[in-house]
Design brief:
The complex is a heterodimer of chains A (225) and B (378). Chain A is 32% helix and 26% strand. Chain A has 225 residues and is α/β, with parallel strands linked by helices. Chain B folds into two domains: 2-58 and 230-377, no CATH class; 62-223, Barwin-like endoglucanases (Beta Barrel). Classes of the chains: A alpha/beta (225), B alpha+beta (378). The interface between A and B is medium-sized, with 33 and 35 residues.
Amino acid sequence: MLELTNIRKAFNQGKHNEYWALSGIDLAIPEKQVTALRGPSGSGKTTLLTILGCLARPTEGRVRLKGEDISGLPERFLTDIRRRSFGFIFQQFNLIRGLSAVENIILPAYPTGQPRQDLLLKAEALLADVALGHRRDAKVEWLSGGEQQRVAICRALINDPEILIADEPTANLDTKLSKEFLAILEKLAGKGRTIVLTSHDPMVVDSDVVDFVVTLRDGRIVDEK
Amino acid sequence: MKTWIEKQQHLIDFTLASLSRRKAKNLGLLFIYTLLVFVLASVALYTHALRTEAQKVLAGSPEIVLQRLVAGRHDLIPPGYLDKIGRIRGVQKMEGRLWGYYYDSVVKANYTFMAPRNMNIPRGEIIVGPALERSRGIAAGNGISFRSYSGELFTFIVAEVLPQTSELVSADLVLMHEEDFRAFFKYPEDHWTDIAMSVANPQEVRNVAIKLMSTLPDSRPILRDEVLRTYASIFDWREGLMLALLSAAILAFGIFAWEKAAGLSAEEKREIGILKAIGWETGDVIKMKFWEGLLISLLAFLLGYVAAYLHVFHMNAILFEPVLKGWAVLYPRFALPPHIDGLQIATLFFFTVFPYTAAVLVPIWRAATTDPDTVMRS
């Protein structure tokens, strides 16, 4: 599905504070499976995730999506791929304050130009799936952490992407809410989506939902299982 | 095409939601901006309407007015001048006019007394301008007395009050019979204040004026075009004076609006990052902000312009009247006929909406071109 070849990523390249976050990553993300990236802080998990999700370009190396090299594509095309193929669930949820849950969910679909009515119906169905239909019109800042994450999941799914990217999804959740998240994850994996997530949390990484665990340290892969 | 329209609708929807989410900032901005447009539009509308009105009124005035000068001062036209003018080719019509100023110590104001030859006013009666009607509290049928410069008291009956539509030029007028005029001012027989004349061919006005100066070397011909030019420059000067007085305030408001529009809060920057990360293109973000700038500036322009229109044409430009209209004890009270000039609107639009929209777009451009991965690390 997603293949990385000899990926290197530098920050502040050419400056006195140049830093290589990734140093030669070769990785294949299996289709319709859940892959977890784990490792200590500063190991390059999030940098790798941004490259996998087309949010950033590697300094060196190739990224292939379904066999097509996308690492050299201009920003516009990369945005289009990101919108069609990826859904993002951020650690801080990154919802837009002041907008309702349903308005937040349909935001990624605005550039597609689909009729608003269709988008609202889709968003309501997604909310119902995560048992949040009753919070449809609530402003996101009024929602609890767990509710906000479920809204973020719905937002990630509005364009029906093949791949879901989640950065430390349980970092801000307690055990009960983390279990609820894993249940949703299982449901999504069961529907055949490819999921890539980063996590420190053993509850996530060691759970049965995760099929493939990649361990990183100092910008390199040290273990795959 | 349908997709494109839907997309623009989504962007506008989001823009409206964004505007309502930052109510205090945007309402403040809208208020300041509206005020700016209101001031500029009021001055422009008022002076333009005054110029147009003056041009309309003067369009009916004689092409040449001849005055006689003695030692550089205006003096009476003695008998025989009319005959000499009659012999100049090109002069179609001429008439001696009688007019003068009278100071009324009761209201401490000057009136213009005039004996029109085209009106049949019976002896002992006068027709007065609307300002006189107000200041002296008189109406048609009332009697009014004026003490002449010789100390004699004259009483007249007001036959009529001139309509308000002509007030710009008739506010302080007192019209009377020629005999009454001559008796009141002890004006010598066959003398005139000046001579008004019309010229058959408008192209020949200047030539006729040259002939008049050579035939009557002690006279001064005043051309209608010159009067129009003088009026225009007076109103231009007042408009400039007004804008100069307001320039500091306009500049301060402008800088404030620019500052507000150009500054991006951390929250706004974060939102732009989120939108880019979830699949919005740089162009979409810029378009959304463009709509935001356009909606605010367009709304401010409309509100400011409509308020200025109401201020000028329904409230007589109450705020700027003393500077723009001029100074007088007997203020003409008149409603200017509404007049809107397309070029004026376009100019005002260009200098208000355009810079604002640009002010909004510049910082957005910078923010929208940042990498979307920054949101992952916030």
